Amino acid sequence: MNEVIKAMLERRSVRRFKPDMPKKEDIDSIIEAGLYAPSGMNRQSAIIVAVTDKKFRSKLAADNAAIMGREGEDPFYGAPVVLIVLARKDAFTGIYDGSLVMENLMLAAHSLGLGSIWIHRAKEEFETEEYKRILRDLGAEGEYEGVGHCAIGYADCPTPGPAPRKDGRVFYI
Fold first, then answer.
1. Where does 3-153 sit in CATH, by number?
2. How far apart are CA 118 and CA 13, in angstroms?
């Protein structure tokens, strides 16, 4: 079977990670794969904020859990790396572009033997002045909307099997 299709069929969300930090080269390869995702009119409107700092990762987790209404939980399931994908608000395909970046990140992580999961609430985080300021401090110019968090790391659980696919989802003309 084609390796790309095989990765698409085998990748699963991981909900328990080891605390071990993935190799920097692997993180960089995953980010590069994300940057090569298709985008509307090749505008490349999505950006990635790579969170590897433990202190900031803990703050991000606490803020995300608060938005979810579950203070004290870790919405990133212990993953040591969180790649935050955001899209320019002035790009009419921005959310779609960012979603494609997220998929590329997850497939790249899987191809390198790492687990991943898409976690929401980046939109709510980056609507706050605090997180807008963080983007400005990083040098990101313009207005951005959070698309999602790609939590990555070494899985600390068996890979689940695929859920059955629902019938009636394909129509040919």
1. 3.40.109.10
2. 8
